[in-house]
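Hey team,

Filing this mostly as a record. A colleague (T.K.) asked me to run one chain through the structure pipeline before their review meeting, and I want the input and output archived in the tracker in case anyone asks later how it was produced. No errors, nothing strange. Just documentation.

Input sequence:
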Amino acid sequence: MSTFQPNDEAPSPRSERPIAVQLDLAGFLARAAPYLLESELENQLLLSLAYSLANPEAPRSEQLLVASAGQPVGAALYVPPQPLQVTRLDARAAEAVACAFARAEPRISVTMGPDAASELVARALALHAGAAVEQTGRQILLGLTEVAHVPEPPGTIRPAEEADFELCTRWYREFEVEARPPYVGDPAQAVRWALEARTLYLWDHGGPVALARLGSPTPTGNRIGPVYTAPDRRGRGYATALVARLSRQALASGKRFVCLFVDENNPLARRVYTRIGYRTVTGFGIWRLQSPR
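Output structure:
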């Protein structure tokens, strides 16, 4: 374990200046999870990512716990080449995170988290790197604790199977082009993992017409995404029914809430999710560092 300071000056034992502490994954989960679980819904993305890294085949990651006067005040998680995920942070805590990652991971180029925190960390990183910074997107976190009744179209939900691999991979690619998520990975690998974990579902009406994944659990929640409907089958309620069914499935399994993200520039999707019972939790800003000056 190593401690990063906002500058090289040794802190006073009584100083309440935030300190960013680098931890291994086990230490991070032990020390940060209780703090993150106090706002589990808002922190669900970062938490679920941290839990998934316990897999021996998981990629390399860097975890920071931000503490002030011995108490956690924030956290950050970086899994290259994904965006740096941050929790709510004030300006001093954001500077501590930026200072730590400027030294340990100078290649970070994208931040994502609650609006103000993501911007604060991105601007602090940009100052360290001598780079420009701009907001490139904004996702809205929606949460649900009870599913409203929505009419179901013809068809039924079913788990995706190996025979669906090529179609699901194509739909993942098309989703990334349309939705412009902050991180674009390997669609084929993402589908392969989802098939193996049995977390990918289809709405089938004479063949697959819509796709959704449910499989990013935290102690009392789960997250849905991506959600995609074949372009020539849209407007018929397939994705609505699929998300509603998966939301009920998650709640029936004992989860207290279900959440998902939607691009702020997709008002149609937001209206669909609102009909199901989803409500806005907060906005997540996506900020990108440009080439150094």
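Quick notes for T.K.: The chain has a mean pLDDT of 92. Helices lie at 25-37, 44-52, 91-104, 115-129, 165-179, 187-197, 238-252, 267-276.
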